[in-house]
RNA sequence: GUGAGUGUAGUUCAAUUGGUUAGAGCACUGGAUUGUGGUUCCAGAUGUUGGGGGUUCAAGUCCCCUCACUCACCCCA
């Protein structure tokens, strides 16, 4: 009996696994470089939390959650996004106290029950960061800089940054009222779905892809014209800061995040090549000043972003991707052949491993060709032990890149030292 | 949830209007080369043509069902 993988999931073996591992390693280094520290929450989360935080009317909670009912009747979900669980955890443990600012990053699997497509899976990975307890506009900019830093780290150049402000508790209701009025007057020009949205969430009409709706939406009042004083000055400051750092962005009054907790600054990094098909959002984020209170915590203005790892990987230029997926070299492959050499080779392998040398050995054959051929794909150096070497108490160390080889005394410390010397070059 | 497309060896793909024993590259195994890999040469192994049913003298090819995958809509990372 053979079994197939679950729809919308994927396994990682071989090169794919190496690629994923090296990409996430690189992401961690970049995010840590901007002062964020690692955080992790459970995959299983309380269902109600997402309804509250993300919004009951959003597609994510409305139709995309994997729901699990415990034997006692409690309702859990496989988390569909990370900001809410992280915020829940922070509140629950009083992780942020007083005026302190915490910066966290994560790399986590998420689950959404959607039809799979290019750059879209049911079980997928997101990396992301959250800057907690700061309303400083420079935090918004810092996020965008990090976003650029990440794409730069992978040499992704075909992208654009779009920003918008969607206001706060004070000015958004006023704006949505205006919008509702405008769209109601033109409702005949809207698609069926948008006529429904009109009542539940008129902001989403702006985001509709129907060409008729787009036309109507293009004439709609814009949020940035309706911002309150505070939101307006904040947005001006964010833009000013981006300008100062010469960050290239465009204003897109149509950006509306699909999660209800966002306020003020929102932004997207959009892939502009053809790597992603129609799922072109590489990174999406913004400010969510009200989320903490919404989840029962203290007032904690915060901002963050998330990016899909599958989409990131798809966007990496092919030559860079190939380099990243071959970065799995071990230091030394121990090659043995002839009588009584395997034993010595095994014990040398273990000695080297204990001296922090990444070493590998093949027991299953004593053919030198097979071993060297395997070594050349995995290691930079081959440590060769034959009958002669056993007699001489030496080993041959061969550089698999330039074919040069050298005779060294059979002494684990000396061999380890030699290998480390080569490693540093 | 809706629509379209595709299923052939481990993998990428061939196979004339339906026509004999379904082929090739890469990968794999062995050898040329019993002490030297990534280049070369030679040889070898590999298939329920996704599964089931039907039409036909004859089906990888046509029809129906089913399963899987892919892409797009929707939405998002």
TrEMBL record:
Keyword entries, A-Z = Aminoacyl-tRNA synthetase, ATP-binding, Cytoplasm, Ligase, Nucleotide-binding, Protein biosynthesis
Q: Name one GO cellular component term.
A: cytoplasm
Name all Aminoacyl-transfer RNA synthetases class-II family profile domain ranges.
Answer: 19-316
- What reaction(s) does this enzyme catalyze? tRNA(His) + L-histidine + ATP = L-histidyl-tRNA(His) + AMP + diphosphate + H(+)
Q: Where in the cell is it found?
A: Cytoplasm
Q: Which domain of life is it from?
A: Bacteria
Alphabetically, which GO biological process terms does the record hold?
A: histidyl-tRNA aminoacylation
Q: What is its EC number?
A: 6.1.1.21
Q: What class of enzyme is it?
A: ligase
Which residues of this UniProt protein bind L-histidine? 81-83, 112, 126, 130, 257, 261-262
Q: Name one GO molecular function term.
A: histidine-tRNA ligase activity
Is Protein biosynthesis given among the entry's keywords?
Answer: yes
The coiled-coil regions, if any, are none
Task: Look up keyword tRNA processing and say if it applies.
Answer: no
Q: How does it assemble?
A: Homodimer.
Question: HAMAP family given for it?
Answer: His_tRNA_synth
The similarity annotation says:
Belongs to the class-II aminoacyl-tRNA synthetase family.
Name the PANTHER family for this protein.
HISTIDINE--TRNA LIGASE, MITOCHONDRIAL-RELATED, HISTIDYL-TRNA SYNTHETASE
Q: What is this protein called?
A: Histidine--tRNA ligase
Identify the species of origin: candidate division WOR-3 bacterium
